[in-house]
Design goal:
Layout: E1 14-20, E2 33-39, E3 47-56, H1 60-64, E4 85-92, E5 102-105, E6 112-116, E7 121-123, H2 139-152, E8 159-163, H3 168-179, E9 183-188, H4 191-200, E10 205-208, H5 215-222, E11 227-232, H6 236-242, E12 246-254, H7 258-261, H8 273-278, E13 282-285, H9 295-307, E14 315-319, H10 324-332, E15 339-343
Parallel strand pairs: 8-9, 8-11, 9-10, 11-12, 12-13, 14-15
Antiparallel strand pairs: 1-2, 3-4, 3-6, 3-15, 4-5, 5-7
Helix pairs in contact: 2-3, 2-9
Bound molecules: NADP nicotinamide-adenine-dinucleotide phosphate.
Length: 344
């Protein structure tokens, strides 16, 4: 029989939600989302009411609101925006969840949700701040760990290049590469990110793609022995400049193509397959859920590296549920250093 517990506080009646109002054309606008007051959901047996504490804003959300099915269903107009969240259990009709528990789930941009015990993962706030379940010890962290190590298989002394290196995934990839004994070069779009990567995260060098006129020349200078592994978060002209600098038997992990997500028309690109042929490159895309069954291993290793001081992470926290679309757009525009989160 399900345990029925309740909190001292009465149930809130209003549940603020952000719904998709329009399919964005180019960079999303705040008016593409509407803030609505819905009723707080009632609980069925086996469910608990969670109050959102942190919301994640991630680049993949841009793909979900285009209306085209990629590897997941799109968000429809009028739907609550999808997304990962951390919340705290209030009332519970689930034997698995007690009031006060922190959980990670996927209930999207809303302040309250009724969740099944099985659809969420319980978090231990004594092990790590609960926000890390959306970053370094969550989906972005697992993306960097498995997407880099499993696909690039870096060897000590090799040169690793990371684009989007000042963000949630890229900043971790660069540090994992250092832990594995690589020489690491990062690419990002602000001077602050470049300083952070080189001064605090021990990247060997880095450059700002927004202020560098010739990426090919810069890569020649910063990667004099060529590039063995490229972890690609951005695509576009940055990646076009990387292929000619790849070493024979180099590996490219195609994680993201954020430079393309807001384009109104697809960009024509150069023909890169001749480099894949003559340099005998391995180029592999991945979706992190491929590694879901091994997340336990990845989280344990990342947590250990944090404890040992080998892995650092940064969270940029925007305060207030009402600022969620702003935070999402700011992340797409590169205003975040490390993982962008909303504190509700
Ligand atoms: N394959 C998977 O399963 C998987 C899972 C998670 C994430 N991803 C991908 O990994 C990438 C990074 O995700 P994240 O969560 O770590 O985001 P993030 O790097 O924390 O934030 C996005 C960053 O992208 C950069 N950016 C925006 N427009 C750009 C452009 N036109 N050219 C180059 N860089 C641009 C911005 O930094 P700058 O200041 O450097 O421009 C921005 O801060 C994304 O492409 C995402 O789609 C893939």
């Amino acid at each position: 029989m399900a345990a029925i517990m309740s909190t001292a506080r009465p149930l809130p009646r209003i549940n603020r939600q952000f719904k998709l109002a329009a399919r964005p054309v180019g960079l999303p606008k705040e008016s593409d989302f509407t803030l609505v007051d819905a009723a707080t959901p009632s609980l069925a047996e086996g469910q608990a009411l969670v109050k959102t504490v942190y919301l994640s804003v991630d680049p993949y959300m841009r793909g979900r609101i285009t209306g085209i099915r990629t590897y997941a269903d799109p968000v429809n107009i009028g739907d609550v925006m999808q997304g990962g969240a951390v919340g705290q259990v209030g009332e519970s009709k689930s034997p698995a969840l007690a009031p006060g528990d922190f959980v990670l789930g996927h209930w999207g941009w809303q302040e309250y949700a009724a969740v099944d015990g099985k659809s969420v993962r319980k978090l231990d706030p004594k092990l790590a701040p609960v926000s890390t379940a959306l970053g370094v010890l969550g989906m972005p962290g697992m993306t960097s760990y498995f997407g880099f190590l499993d696909i690039c298989k870096p060897q000590p002394g090799e040169t690793v290049l990371v684009s989007g290196a000042g963000g949630a995934v890229g900043s971790l990839v660069g540090q994992i590469a250092k832990i594995k004994g690589s020489r690491v070069v990062g690419i990002a779009g602000t001077g602050e990110k470049i300083d952070w990567m080189v001064k605090e995260l021990s990247f060997d060098s880095a450059f700002n793609y927004k202020t560098t006129p010739d990426y090919g020349e810069k890569l020649k200078e910063l990667c004099p022995n060529g590039i063995d592994c490229y972890f690609d978060n951005v695509g576009g002209s940055t990646t076009d400049a990387v292929f000619p600098r790849m070493n024979t038997f180099g590996r490219i992990s195609v994680c993201g193509q954020i430079s393309q997500y807001n384009l109104k028309q697809p960009e024509p690109g150069p023909r890169l397959l001749p480099y894949v042929l003559v340099k005998q490159l391995k180029v592999e895309g991945f979706i992190v859920t491929r590694f879901q069954s091994r997340f336990g291993e990845g989280i344990a290793q990342m947590a250990q590296w944090i404890k040992e001081g080998k892995l650092k992470y940064r969270e940029q926290v925007v305060e207030g549920f009402e600022n969620t679309p702003k935070a999402f757009i700011a992340m797409l525009e590169g205003e975040n250093t490390g993982k962008m989160l909303v504190k509700v």
